[in-house]
């Protein structure tokens, strides 16, 4: 298989996991890292064993050894970095959100289609084998028509007033915080599993901590504040949200999203209720799929390749009883994307299920925009408005 060169822009918390995931594929070379300065890029490159370090994303994108550009920069840099990569006809893998507004996300989707390159967004929870099992069971009709989808995504990393991140600054992270950051994951995941798209939302957004103490230095996600110098920062985005949603297949839904919920580290979960059965999955216990029934005993399906449906089995790489986790699901997403690239396929062809595209990123941005509009209107039902890219 022809080797593929990967270049990473923005080697922060999630960027390191992009590198780890593609290295596990065996046919991808991590050839370059770009950061805000050549010095910081060199330090990261040396620490991660990457040969090239660039002081700007423009230099990395121009590097002929880079075939695929991974964008894990702060949200406000997604548009310029991705547009520069598309101008060079480089394949792009972007962290979510694709862009801070739906209009920008649509522009990126349209530009990617016009460039004729492979484009992907890392909605990484799709890569879990039991997520794919739930999707296969629903598609096969095992749970019957789906009528209710509910769940949550709760964290506690912003529970103190001294907790801070660039994600909370609207000019860097966007107008929404909790919903855009983690609620978008939940929305993409349940749509992917249920095979229905969210078309209307009703939102109640809350800012629990109205004033935070912003540190003088930069702080990565889930890290404690840097330095002692702090200044008050008035919050403009939500850290807690409750959403009601309607799906195009007729299902109704509800989700709670929050980053100020003590004891919840990365607690994403969903339950899907159908006419014949229910399915429940929790990210913090991701090797178990709960199956609920009325006429027979409910039970737990473990992550065991011998028990999974064919479409889900290929996402499980260890025997039953050998646990697979967040990083393994992330690698599954990269495997789907890079196998597609390696085969020389185009975006008009059928893609593997864990592969989310810029179109998916645009739809997620439209949901966030609808959530913000619903809240501004006092919690009114609001349509998720989308336009085609071209």
What does this structure look like?
With 390 residues, the protein is an alpha/beta fold. The chain has two domains: 4-125 and 336-357, 3-Layer(aba) Sandwich (Rossmann fold), CATH 3.40.50.720; 128-319 and 365-375, Dihydrodipicolinate Reductase, domain 2 (2-Layer Sandwich). It is built from eleven helices and 17 strands. It has helices at residues 13-23, 38-48, 57-62, 78-87, 102-115, 129-139, 170-173, 178-194, 310-313, 326-342, 358-376, and strands at 4-9, 28-34, 52-54, 68-71, 91-94, 119-121, 146-154, 198-206, 211-215, 230-234, 240-247, 252-258, 267-274, 278-282, 288-292, 299-302, 382-383. It has a nine-stranded mixed β-sheet. The chain has a six-stranded parallel β-sheet with strand order 3-2-1-4-5-6, with helices on both faces. A two-stranded antiparallel sheet has the order 9-10. Helix 1 crosses helix 10, helix 5 (102-115) packs antiparallel against helix 11 (358-376) and helix 8 (178-194) crosses helix 11 (358-376). 49% of the residues are buried. The mean pLDDT is 96.
List the keywords:
nine-stranded mixed beta sheet, six-stranded parallel beta sheet, globular, 2 domains, Dihydrodipicolinate Reductase, domain 2, 390 residues, Rossmann fold, alpha/beta, 32% helix, 17 strands
Strand content: 15-25%
Count of DSSP-assigned helices:
11
The CATH topology of the largest domain turns out to be Dihydrodipicolinate Reductase, domain 2
Report the major sheet.
Answer: 9 strands, mixed
């Amino acid at each position: 298989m022809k080797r593929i060169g990967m270049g990473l822009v923005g080697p922060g918390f999630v960027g390191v996991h992009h590198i780890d995931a593609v290295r596990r594929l065996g046919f991808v070379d991590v050839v370059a890292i770009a950061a805000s300065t050549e010095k910081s890029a060199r330090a990261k490159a040396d620490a991660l064993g990457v040969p090239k370090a660039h002081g700007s994303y423009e230099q990395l994108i121009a590097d002929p050894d880079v075939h695929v550009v991974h964008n894990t920069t702060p949200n406000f840099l997604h548009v310029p970095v991705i547009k520069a990569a598309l101008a060079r006809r480089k394949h792009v893998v972007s962290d979510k959100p694709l862009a801070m507004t739906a209009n920008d996300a649509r522009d990126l989707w349209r530009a990617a289609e016009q460039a004729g390159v492979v484009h992907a967004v890392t909605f990484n929870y799709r890569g879990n084998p039991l997520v794919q099992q739930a999707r296969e069971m629903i598609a096969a009709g095992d749970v019957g028509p789906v009528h209710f989808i509910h769940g949550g995504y709760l964290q506690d990393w912003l529970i103190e007033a001294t907790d801070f991140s660039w994600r909370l600054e609207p000019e860097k992270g966007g107008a929404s915080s909790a919903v855009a950051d983690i609620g978008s994951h939940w929305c993409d995941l349940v749509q992917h599993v249920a095979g229905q798209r969210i078309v209307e939302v009703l939102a109640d957004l809350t800012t629990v901590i109205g004033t935070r103490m912003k540190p003088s230095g930069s702080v990565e996600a889930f890290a404690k504040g840097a330095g002692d110098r702090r200044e008050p920062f008035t919050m403009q985005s939500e850290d807690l949200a409750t959403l009601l949603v309607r799906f195009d297949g007729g299902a109704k839904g509800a989700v709670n999203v929050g980053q100020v919920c003590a004891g919840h580290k990365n607690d994403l979960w969903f339950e899907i209720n159908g006419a014949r059965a229910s399915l429940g999955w929790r990210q913090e216990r991701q090797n178990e799929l709960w199956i609920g029934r009325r006429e027979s005993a409910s039970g737990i399906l473990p992550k065991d390749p011998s028990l999974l449906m064919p479409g889900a089995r290929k996402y499980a790489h260890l025997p039953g009883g050998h646990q697979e986790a967040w990083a393994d699901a992330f690698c599954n997403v990269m495997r789907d994307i890079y196998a597609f690239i390696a085969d020389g396929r185009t975006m008009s062809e059928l893609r593997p299920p864990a592969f989310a595209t810029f179109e998916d990123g645009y739809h997620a941005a439209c949901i966030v925009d609808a959530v913000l509009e619903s809240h501004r209107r006092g919690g009114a039902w609001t349509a998720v408005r989308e336009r085609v890219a071209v």
